[in-house]
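Retry 2 of 3 after timeout on previous attempt. Resubmitting structure tokens to design endpoint.
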């Protein structure tokens, strides 16, 4: 008889956002026609930038012309997009080869797929609170998971330590859910730690475009020595509104070698075996993100989401509620008032003022007692949600 992967039995009963969906669906069944103010899941609401839309239309027209038609694309990414992304890094002082950039269908897919590079005996370090897929993907693979706690005592930015030794190190900066961002010095200590111990950092840079301060690194490859210990996984979902369009990219330096095997070459082999590449149309749209026009439009959209963050932070300030994030990240991480548990606070906001957020407990045990708001909603809904929060909590 076929034996299934029994590690699935070790997963929690449901994925965090599915549980939220079930709760909100049940509420709407009891209160049909009610409008919910959704500050939970980090889905964007602004449309794709105009430069991207034009490029997508042009790509569709290309597919209608035999002279410009594209069939299968290179599995690791179209040369024009890999060149464009590498050039974008070089403008920021990071020297990459075009071949070190791999085009993907998005960061979530890539964070799971990339684990093919590591033996199942490898341990994984997760700094918690953390994006739950980090844990779940390794539970499915049957790996040992080391949970490194973070909290107000270290600004949700823990230092490497003896207890943090693992083969795979997950670092997300700006962090989801806390909004915390590692400084050059802090990230440098993790790079040194990984190189000393032969670990590999999986650096989730999905929110790098939200960093305002020049004094903070946006890529791990701004840190000396990272090319021998890090893989960077990026997304256009939050940067340019590609949540429903699905496109991202991964950087694997050729200098990253373990036990005589170059992880870059391993990933080429993986992609050419397991994928048929990303569609030409999507890659043409993605290339437009990195034009001067596309970058200006991306920054304009990010400013609108940051205005939402300011609206929510003002409301929390008026209520005297302690929070983190909001400035260099699209998430606000707040302490639940009156010692309330995170799921209890979720139910309280849903029932009393129809505001939906994300319970911190869903990001690991260190998240209990905290709550995450996303700033990706419409300005109108965010303003109304902030007004209701003030009225309820002040």
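Retry 2 succeeded. Sequence:
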């Amino acid at each position: 008889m076929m034996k299934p992967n029994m590690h699935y039995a070790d997963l929690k009963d449901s994925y965090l956002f599915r549980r939220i969906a079930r709760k909100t669906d049940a509420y709407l069944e009891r209160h049909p026609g009610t409008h919910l103010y959704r500050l939970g899941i980090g889905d964007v609401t602004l449309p794709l930038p105009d430069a991207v839309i034009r490029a997508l239309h042009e790509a569709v027209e290309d597919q209608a012309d035999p002279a410009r038609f594209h069939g299968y694309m290179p599995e690791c990414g179209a040369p024009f997009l890999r060149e464009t992304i590498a050039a974008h890094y070089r403008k920021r002082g990071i020297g990459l080869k075009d071949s070190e950039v791999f085009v993907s269908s998005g960061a979530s897919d890539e964070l799971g797929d990339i684990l093919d590079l590591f033996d199942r005996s490898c341990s994984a370090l997760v700094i918690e609170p953390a994006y739950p897929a980090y844990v779940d993907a390794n539970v499915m693979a049957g790996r040992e998971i080391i949970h490194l706690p973070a909290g107000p005592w270290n600004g949700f930015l823990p230092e490497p330590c003896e207890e943090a030794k693992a083969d795979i190190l997950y670092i997300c900066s700006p962090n989801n859910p806390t909004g915390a961002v590692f400084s050059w010095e802090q990230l440098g200590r993790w790079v040194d730690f990984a190189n000393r111990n032969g670990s590999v950092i999986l650096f989730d840079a999905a929110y790098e475009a939200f960093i305002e301060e020049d004094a903070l690194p946006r890529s791990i490859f701004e840190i000396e020595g990272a090319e021998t210990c890090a893989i960077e996984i990026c997304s256009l979902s939050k940067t340019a509104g590609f949540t429903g369009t699905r496109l991202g990219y991964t950087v694997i330096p050729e200098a990253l070698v373990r036990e005589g095997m170059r992880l870059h070459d391993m990933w080429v082999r993986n992609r050419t075996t397991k994928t048929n590449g990303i569609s030409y149309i999507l890659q043409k749209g993605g290339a437009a993100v990195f034009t001067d026009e596309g970058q200006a439009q991306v920054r304009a959209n990010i400013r609108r989401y940051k205005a939402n963050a300011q609206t929510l932070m003002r409301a929390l300030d008026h209520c005297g509620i302690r929070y983190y994030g909001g400035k260099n990240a699209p998430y606000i991480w707040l302490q639940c008032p009156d010692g309330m548990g995170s799921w209890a606070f979720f139910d309280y906001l849903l029932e009393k003022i129809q505001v939906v957020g994300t319970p911190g407990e869903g990001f690991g045990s260190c998240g209990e007692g905290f709550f995450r708001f996303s700033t990706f909603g419409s300005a109108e809904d965010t303003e109304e949600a902030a007004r209701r929060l003030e009225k309820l909590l002040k």
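Attempt log closed. The chain has a mean pLDDT of 96.
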